[in-house]
Amino acid sequence: xxxxxxxxxxxxxxxxxxxxxxxxxxxxxxxxxxRNWLLFTFMVLLWGSNWSIMKIGLRYIEPVAFVxxxxxxxxxxxxxxxxxxxNRIPRDKRTLAKLAILCLIFVSVIVAQxxxxxxxxxxxxxxxxYTQPLFVFLLAVPLLSEKVTKTKLLGVIIGFTGxxxxxxxxxxxxxxxxxxxxxxxAFLWGLAAVYYKKFLNHVDPLITHFSQLSVGIIPLLxxxxxxxxxxFPNDAVYVEALFVSSVGALAVGNVIWxxxxxxxxxxxxxGSTLIIPAVALFFGWRLLGENFSLYSLLGxxxxxxGVYLLNIRRKSYQPSANQSKQTQPxxx
Length: 332
Prior knowledge:
There is one protein chain. The chain is mainly alpha-helical. The protein has a domain of about 200 residues. The chain is built from 14 helices and no strands. The longest helix is centred in the last third of the chain and has 28 residues. It is globular.
């Protein structure tokens, strides 16, 4: 149908302009800019679906061996890009030492996720892992000097209420040991996010993640060699799960994660990931036949409200003096 010239055309133009401005963060939504929202949405899809894909992969191999093979595939995928960006690799010893520490934290996070997930459903694994924003919230305020507003605090509370509602639906299948391992992994992930934001914010996200993968392979090789099954399963389903999980979630997803952490407030980025358990529950229902009930819908809705509140803009964002200093390269 032809749009009339004149008044109606101007109204349509004004409407689409207003929609774009709303997405771009200039009409009240501070949070993430349009480009970063698109990247964040892509990351959410990669990470949300990855819990079901990892669960499929863990049917064929032990958790540590699965992590090792994911690391190797991801490192191979990122190697060409790292060579192109090799001039961005830090040379000073202090930064390299901090990168090494981040590598150890990150490999512990991934191992904890896989070990915990091997004993739980993909939904439970995602819900417990994404208590991570709470730890970031508690750490970022004193360590990164990020401001706590009433709206942001309300967003965290509502978001975690949504996660709790999602958790109620899965509590019957919970085991204490695996729950503790997943929660410990969530704490380490929160610690890694704050550590990167504070000490390594000046390092290129791709270089940071490639360093984590290449260095992390060493302790993983030692851990995997102690297991009873660390070979490569000769099964097409496993190969597909390994490839998708490695290239999508671990390689691409984590590069986007570090990029967003560098560009945005840590509490906003990590708080927004509260939506991932809802996405994981949906994929668990579709791919694995796991339960998806009224609790899932209610919890998902509350989580979305929490994410929205976390991204409400009070004023045009101005980083504090401490944050401005943190984004500068750390001198050796």
